[in-house]
What does this fold into?
Amino acid sequence: MAAKTPPERNRYVDFLRAISIVVVVFGHWLMAVITVQGGRVVAGHMLAEAPGTQILTWVFQVMPIFFMVGGYSNAASWSAAERTGKSYADWLRSRCQRLLGPTAVFAMAWVPMALLARVVVPDPDMLILTGHFVTVPLWFLAVYLMVIPIAPAMFKLHRLFGVAVPVVLTIAAAVFDFVDMHILPPHDSLELTVGWINYPIVWLAVHQIGYLWWDGALEKSPRTKGWLASIGLAGLVALTASGLYPLSMIGVPGTGRTNNTPPTVALIFLALFQMGLILISSPRARTWLSKIDPWARTIVANSMIMTMYLWHLTALVLAVFAGVLLGVGFKLEALTPGWWLTRILWFAVLVAVLLVFVAIFGRFERPRPPSEVGGGRLTAVVTCAGALLAGAGLAGLAIEGFYTPDELWGFPVGTLLILLLGTAAVGVTPRIYAKR
It folds into this structure.
């Protein structure tokens, strides 16, 4: 596959997709501070235990990179669909399939695991914490699934107005930030307020940057890359130094308002900063990726990247459970020199556990293409509604977790049904995984 890749393909986009997910995986593993105190598992967070590390989130918060890469890929695929006459419904089904197939399998696999957990874990608080913890990756997928259906419409706006689209979205995000932070009374980060409107606004703005990258607008002038990095960094410094926005680009337990739940304009400046760095490094990176070996490794990584992303926190939970059961590990005081030295072993164990999940579930990243449904208006509406419904189901799972003691059988049956119904509506069914 590496040898047959056409030379005009921007391989750096594929590399960034893979490396951003790898950073998320290792970032989550690193930030989990697990200790056993008095026979109880205590889950801490590095950013809360050592506030000085929060600046590292300017590197480890890579969701803007993923959305910009998504914008680039959606622009390329939609343009190709327009050239070949592919319908909106067929395009949307193909874009959702790679995300929803492994995700639906992940959700369904966790049903028996959640039932088993109720038997082997007597502490209901620990069950609730674990059920929420393993669904953290679903937040991003829920938002991205709601962006994809409107990507063609946003691409049309891009063709008409270009850079004005993300600029207007950025201004709107800043306005909603101001209302949410300074006009509304103090509230919990998960409380639904006007600030949640920034979920589509912020991430669509970042997604539009990917369109500008795809059509070459960001590379017309050699100065653009430097200006992007400078404006992004200056904006981040100004917003966080003023005290108006938190330093961390991800949520820190116990600190109140965050930059990602709901997202703030700070993430748009982070995206500009990261895009500037991407463009600065692009020539050398693309030269390196033109070689067979690094490009082949990139292809292999992308072939299992969704499985890694979905299951990496489950791997962590199982490793902790096994360690506590066997009385091995988690006895050192957190963030001490000895604790840091054990991170190498910690990563090695987690990689080994995660590879087991990849071996079991990786095949669901290689389905057959869904059958084409044509260009009828009803079909387009049903497919679009399915993608949005699946996104809503994932958002519900991220909020509720896999253990809900007040519901039937102890897990969110209704939310799972919403996810599965939306998944089926976009053509992701068991049939696409049948052996060829």
